[in-house]
Hints:
Chain A has one domain (2-236): Rhopdopsin 7-helix transmembrane proteins. The model of chain A has no long low-confidence stretch (mean pLDDT 90). Helix content of chain A is 82%, strand content 0%. By secondary structure, the first copy, chain A, is an all-alpha fold. In chain A, α2 (12-34) packs parallel to α10. The A-B interface holds A 1-2, 4-5, 7, 9-10, 15, 18-19, 22-23, 25-26, 29-30, 33-34, 36-37 and B 3, 32, 35-36, 40, 43-44, 47-48, 50-51, 54-55, 58-59, 62, 65-66, 68-70, 75-77, 80-81, 83-84, 126-127. The structure holds retinal (2 copies). One retinal is lined by residues 52, 82, 85-86, 117-118, 121, 136, 139-140, 143, 181, 184-185, 188, 213, 216-217 of chain B.
Amino acid sequence: FSLVGKIATDDYVGFTFFVGCMAMMAASAFFFLSMNSYDRKWRTSILVSGLITFIAAVHYWYMRDYWAANAESPTFFRYVDWILTVPLMCVEFFLILKVAGAKKALMWKLIILSVIMLVFGYFGEAVDRDNAWLWGLLSGAAYFVIVYEIWLGSAKKLAESAGGAVLSAHKMLCWFVLVGWAIYPVGYMAGTPGWYEGIFGGISMDVIYNIGDAINKIGFGLVVYNLAVTATAKAEA
Amino acid sequence: FSLVGKIATDDYVGFTFFVGCMAMMAASAFFFLSMNSYDRKWRTSILVSGLITFIAAVHYWYMRDYWAANAESPTFFRYVDWILTVPLMCVEFFLILKVAGAKKALMWKLIILSVIMLVFGYFGEAVDRDNAWLWGLLSGAAYFVIVYEIWLGSAKKLAESAGGAVLSAHKMLCWFVLVGWAIYPVGYMAGTPGWYEGIFGGISMDVIYNIGDAINKIGFGLVVYNLAVTATAKAEA
Ligand SMILES: CC1=C(/C=C/C(C)=C/C=C/C(C)=C/C=O)C(C)(C)CCC1
Ligand SMILES: CC1=C(/C=C/C(C)=C/C=C/C(C)=C/C=O)C(C)(C)CCC1
């Protein structure tokens, strides 16, 4: 139990790992336990939201301990988490638009792009830090294609044809990807060497990533949850 | 399992950590497993009650171990717990009054005030103990604004317009905040240096906080639970 003893009261990075871990656990309980109160066609979406926060809860548990023991970035666990949760978010996008007739091809396109984005990011952070700027650029390119796909590509047309609660949930998720996901490249720049060094001077990469995760995983899930609540209420009225 | 062997039979602080941990776990099981027996519109409220005790159960688990290992106040974990559970209690307030037309602005106001209250408290207990009286005063000011908001502000009018079971649940919760939450500043004074030193001489801060948590987290949840039971019975009659 030495671990429990080690957290210093001014270890703000450790603090965000602890708060993040617990918030992910609580969010998972929330999604898992509430899914059956809504229309069956939304249940899988709420369940996937819960899986995303559940996977994150487990990795935050590791990352918390890793941080407490080594006081360095748990890059490995961070990317294990992302490589599972980010594709699941692409599945969420698809599930929401499925009601409007989305094809699986859209889902696979988003999944592949997101895996490319993360693999390049991992190379920059962990394998070839000297060229972190280059890997970040390549990763960022994949990110932009994702943003383009959902904001202006076929996903947009599907959402518009569905209208109503599906359209407004889709819009919210698009904003999450554009603004919420943009938190990650900022963290990356704060934590890797490059011409951009010092711009975000002082702020810890892990704190930035942890804030990003809280917003994107829990917030994203709540948008989906809210869609289920609204659509169920409308169907019953 | 050396931990289990270490608790001395006269370690009353450790005793309250153990009892608190188990009580929170049992309360979580109770709320989670009973939520689906009541009207859907109350389920989220019961679920949130369960999340509050669940989060507390996890932190009591840490605090118990921390206390057993170090025999000192687990300030860090205490505040990680509060920073999550107190805003969730503000969400509860909102959920109950939502049926009466409460706006999200009320919820955010309460959440922000409660975060301010806790951040100041943490500074006094952990960062700048020499000026604990000042941080406590600032924290107490935020606490008073919360009390004012719910007893005399817009929340009161909403509760009155709803009447019936909602009004009486709201009243009970108001009393919890006024009397139940007032236990915490007493614990704070018992555990920090200041002109008030010795007034509560001898009583351990952690015992006071643990009693406060048991009353506020479980009691608060039971009030919400009771509202769901009463309102469901009435709706079915
Ligand atoms: C653009 C970019 C990145 C983007 C990362 C993103 C967008 C991660 C999203 C993670 C999510 C949404 C997790 C939540 O479950 C990296 C890899 C940091 C490398 C630098 C460039
Ligand atoms: C006023 C005041 C405080 C109030 C703390 C409160 C009111 C905590 C409530 C916690 C609850 C309700 C937890 C249950 O989940 C502090 C921070 C001790 C600092 C001293 C002044």
